[in-house]
Please model this.
Amino acid sequence: MAETNFQAQSNISLLFAKDASTTALGTAHDASDNWLALPVISFSMPHDSAALDVGPQRSGTHVQLENQMRHRRDLNTWTFDVSFKGTPTSILAVCQWAFGDGASSADFAGTIGIGNGTSNSSIMKHGTAYANHTTVVFSNAGSDATANDIVVKGCIVQSFTIKEAVGSDAGQLICDATFWTAYAPSEAANTIEADSTDTAAPKSIFSKSTTTFNSEALVLDSWDMTCSRSIERISSQDYSSYLPFGYTQTSPWEVTGTLSAKRDDSVYDALSVLQGASAGVNISIDESSGFTLDIPDAMVDASSINDGGSHLFQTIPFRATAATPTANVWTLAIS
Amino acid sequence: MYKAKPSYKKLKDSENFNHFGSPVKHNKLINDEEINVTDLPKELEKHLIKVEEKKKRSK
Model:
């Protein structure tokens, strides 16, 4: 007889662990940590599975044999996407799990490395305690009738985008994050409950008081900024548990973004920068209080005119850089 | 900008900036570097010293 349990998408809720202190990489956070019910808009879910590696074909055989095959659980990594409303708590949490600074002002410095707190460190080791990873619980997403939650440990943020637009999401700040782990998701009956539910209002483009680009005041229609890097797992401790030795960051952080602004005299006054002066300029996106994004050395990357609406906009793609190896690429004061 | 007092370095991970979401700020304080804080947790006030902000590079 068919099983009677099922999983309604709308019945799934997410909980995220914020460290009460530090937690060993590879260990799930527990009830003593601070579990947050953040304002999630949408999400995808990881599943414990492995790619099939096909070995060499035996000569004179015209089908593939079972013993040719190998599931490569030693290579496994998992990613899943979560979109949050951009409240101070959700933004700072993502900053903590991405680059290790989730206390305002979040400073994206040239020295952040993988984000474990140690300057320029590019590794995290299995079993070593860190405060920059999280455990995510997808409540009611497990397929078993009783072990009906999915628990994902060792998660760090591989990339994230913060964005606002007049024409979408009611102008609210949105944060799209891609989480990454090399530890297999498990299905379990999890009893963790939220310690706090984030009900704060998200930041909004309609609350922005000052946006300047090379000191020129812009009227923004939209803006976004993405921070991304590559991460890889380090091998496998054995071929039974398939636990990794750790993580390593294999590319520099890249910070790119776009401003879309009303095309006006300010745009003309910034013409030499838009033409390409091979020098960074300052971008500031501020609210009167509670939100100050400062990008001190942004390089414009092929600006263009957007003539698709009733009036013209200037599209200003940029790449944020650090003036020196220790300088900030950007800082965000948010409260 | 803030620096650590000696008492900060004696705090447990459940009391220092690791607890407040920033292993980066914690390690800077341990290494006697300055940190930029806009919302200083009350629990840490007595363990940090406010220092004069350095002038920013003008563009």
The radius of gyration of chain B is 12 Å. The CA atoms of residues 6 and 47 of chain B lie 8 Å apart. The first helix of chain B runs from residue 23 to 30.
